[in-house]
Amino acid sequence: MKFYDCATAPSPRLVRMFIAEKGLSNSIETIEVDLREKEQMNDAFRAINPFLTVPALETDDGAIFLTSQGCWRYLEEAHPDPALLGRDATEKALVADAVWRAEQDGFLAVGEALRNTAKGMKDRALTGPHNHAQIAELGERGKRRVGHFFELLDTTMAEQPFMAGENFSAADIMAFVAVEFAGWLKLSIPEDAAHAQRWFNTVKTRPSASV
Amino acid sequence: MKFYDCATAPSPRLVRMFIAEKGLSNSIETIEVDLREKEQMNDAFRAINPFLTVPALETDDGAIFLTSQGCWRYLEEAHPDPALLGRDATEKALVADAVWRAEQDGFLAVGEALRNTAKGMKDRALTGPHNHAQIAELGERGKRRVGHFFELLDTTMAEQPFMAGENFSAADIMAFVAVEFAGWLKLSIPEDAAHAQRWFNTVKTRPSASV
After folding, report:
1. Does one domain contain both A105 and A144?
2. Secondary structure string (H, E, C) spanning chain B
3. Banded model confidence at residue A157, pLDDT cuts 50, 70, 90
4. Are residues B93 and B197 in the same domain?
5. Is residue B84 a part of any domain in this protein?
6. How far is A61 from chain B (nearest CA, A)?
7. In this complex, how many residue pairs, one in chain A and one in chain B, have their CB atoms less than 8 Å apart?
8. Which residue numbers of A have CB closer than 8 Å to B's CBs?
């Protein structure tokens, strides 16, 4: 198996952290794709992923998965223990809900804010093969949404220890990486959001948070 | 099991079509939530889904799933046959990839275009409990992205019969509903996109496309 990674980027970190939680960090070959050098635009990488994004995961049979969701699903099915996408039907569905929420309202909201404001991303307001110009109002909207996400984290963690309930799951990976990604915008969980702070500090101590 | 639906809206249609493919249409109680009457904003529905969206799916044990991804996952695990989220590890991951792509680049692109241009949605540029003003440039961007999605459908279907490969899956439901949703914007698959047309017409003839 080959994992196309970029040490400085948040999207592949979702898979790198998942791999670490599975205990597979030393058994999967990692290929670094330097996004700052635009290596993902090269013909060699374009042949692997025409959407020009990392993460990507290639199996020994030659199947290639091009989204964090696809990479996660393969790893979960091929290496079920420990479960990160839920154990029974109900928990699997609650994890799916929580992953979607953390991605849409957290991870992608941060991306919306960053990509529509960063000086180096004038025509790169979305990832992928098509250029899109920045929209200033969208950058502002993104920042407001990140604030709402922090509120959601706090109300969620007032009720339960982790994003999808009692157990750590991939939804916590999505939400944790989103919070750290928000640091690029100098946005962070408010100090008085005690429940969200407790959850964040708990996840931060996991070895997978440092890979 | 209770399914909170809205006959006129695209998001719950994703689950309604999935239920029909599973052969479960007559065994799940459906509760209609009239979005045109803003019933999703009522206190009664707010207690079921604080995100104020349909679909929602409630099990007999009282678990509630609030995204199409969560509803799909529960139904797939509880009623595995026929598989709509893939059968082996590789196919499950390819379906996850294709669902994500069809949702982000298709379904949500249509929503971005519609919600940022429709007269009746001035402050409803995103679903959920927070109001967001329309952004005209985002409406235009959404329409361009829908065009890119039709191109992606055509190049995908030039290589394979369905979104995730050889078999019909939930990714086809996502893409098909996205295409029909684009009709609200008077956008449709170009006539010369023969591969995408072939796929669309194949899915259109399935009984689940009419529920």
Report:
1. yes
2. CEEEECCCCHHHHHHHHHHHHCCCCCCCEEEECCHHHCHHHCHHHHHHCCCCCCCEEECCCCCEECCHHHHHHHHHHHCCCCCCCCCCHHHHHHHHHHHHHHHHHHHHHHHHHHHCCCHHHCCECCCCCCCECCCHHHHHHHHHHHHHHHHHHHHHHCCCCECCECCCCHHHHHHHHHHHHHHHHCCCCCCCCHHHHHHHHHHHCCHHHHC
3. very high
4. yes
5. no
6. 10
7. 107
8. 51, 59, 61, 63, 65-67, 69-74, 77-78, 86, 88-90, 92-97, 99-101, 105, 125-126, 128, 130, 132, 135, 137-138, 141, 144-145, 148
Task: Select the residue of B92, B100, B141 nearest A132 (Cβ to Cβ).
Answer: B141
Q: Give me the interface pTM, i.e. the ipTM.
A: 0.97
Domain boundary among A33, A48, A78: A78
Summarize pLDDT for B31-74 with one digit per residue, the tens. Answer: 999 998 889 889 999 999 999 999 999 999 999 999 999 999 99
- The rounded mean pLDDT for chain A is 97
Q: Which residues in chain B are closer than 8 Å to A132, comparing Cβ atoms?
A: 141, 144
Number of domains in chain B: 2
Minimal-distance CA residue of chain A relative to B67: A97
Q: How far is B90 from chain A (nearest CA, A)?
A: 6
- Min Cα distance B88 → chain A (Å) is 8
Domain span at residue A153 reads 89-206
Domain presence at residue A177: yes
Indicate yes or no: pTM above 0.90: yes
